[in-house]
Amino acid sequence: MLLRNLKPVSNSQKGKDTVDIRIEEGVIKEIGSGLKAGKGEESHDFEGAFVSPGWMDMHVHLREPGFEHKETIKTGCDAAAFGGFTAVACMPNTKPATHTRDVVEYIIKKAEKLPVDVHPIACVTKERKGKSIAEMADLKEGGAVAFSDDGDPVYDSQVMRVALEYSSMLGLPIINHEEDLALSRPGHMNEGKVATRLGLDGTPGIAEEVMIARDIMLAEYTGGHIHVAHISTKGAVDLVRQAKKKGINVTTEVCAHHFDLTDEEIEKQHFDTNFKMHPPLRTQEDVDAMVEGLVDGTIDAICTDHAPHAIEEKEVEFIYAPNGIIGLETAWSITNQRLLQTKKLDLQQLMDKLVYNPRKILNLESPEIKEGAEANLTFFNTDEEWTFTPKNVRSKSKNSPYLHKQLKGRAVGIFNKGQLVINELR
């Protein structure tokens, strides 16, 4: 297969040169200019699109097993491919929860023939109940790449201490859903002026920050690796920044919507439940802090927290709707618009957030664009304007705040595991 007119971007390539890439049996055989397709060889012209090592989203919910009415591993991977991701790490709040090795192996088996690598994140505690540690070593042997009770925090400090001690022995991070439940519940949006005007119970930023502070202290005490999931407040970014300066083993991620949207959208959009997520949309000051944290390296990775919900679950009053939005299909457009087009980060810096850092955090090998390497590639542009209509949703669910919005920049395809996926707009 010959892939023509591509501009490589990686940690050593800036996207300035145009090359052709020949792939044979899933391996990059040749990279050069003006390559000619052989007799019978499949050829695709990408018309000057960029190519990078395949992107990874380290925080998604694929819902299978147990909630296939929201998403399946197959439909979730379809959404990932449309968004330009060749790898995802999926959270364990399934049914049964991913707290035993057989569930980890089931997920891996279901995904093995799909063009997207699926890496299960296993539970920290049995059944995600926060009481007793899951069999972490066995889960790692089965293929788990991290541990989390995402959807709920590991609330008991002693349990978290033991989890961090075990994880440090296993060399895998603990990813915590940072929420002090006593401070946050029953909040339905960010606590602040907008919530007060709308008469909604709010979740204050300090509910996130208190739990992050605890986890940083426990990571320092145990030497374990704590990864802060979906960071969303200015104070939280400051905590992680100071912890990194002290040499504490802490990393973090931010969702695209948290450096794009504010809590004012809930008022503007008349209580549209597709703007309800957790952590909630915060203030403009918090959004600016997310961008600052990405720029100075405090925030390591960009993720989506892709959280599908069926239409009937979201078409209820705001206070009764579940938290969560889909995000895989739109993450690149938001990243492009908010970070690249505004010159906050360049393409190489964005590849750190999308390619290298997620895999480094999870101790996975990053793909490379070089002859002899397995072809694991993302093809994308930065200037195409397109509309995210329901027809263009690949997820089984359609709970996105970006529906019907005109976006800029699109992932036009991926190549992984010997499979080429071309993303056509519908």
TrEMBL record:
One of its GO terms (cellular component) is cytoplasm. One of its GO terms (molecular function) is allantoinase activity. It is an enzyme of class 3 (hydrolase). Coiled coil: none annotated. Binds 2 Zn(2+) ions per subunit. One of its GO terms (biological process) is 'de novo' UMP biosynthetic process. Zn(2+) 2 binds at residues 150, 177, 230. Signal peptide: none annotated. Pfam families: DHOase (PF12890). Its cofactor is Zn(2+). The active site is at 305. It catalyses: (S)-dihydroorotate + H2O = N-carbamoyl-L-aspartate + H(+). Zn(2+) 1 binds at residues 59, 61, 150, 305. PROSITE patterns: DIHYDROOROTASE_1. Keywords: Hydrolase, Metal-binding, Pyrimidine biosynthesis, Zinc. Catalyzes the reversible cyclization of carbamoyl aspartate to dihydroorotate. Belongs to the metallo-dependent hydrolases superfamily. DHOase family. Class I DHOase subfamily. This is Dihydroorotase. It comes from Gracilimonas sediminicola. The lineage of its organism: Bacteria, Pseudomonadati, Balneolota, Balneolia, Balneolales.
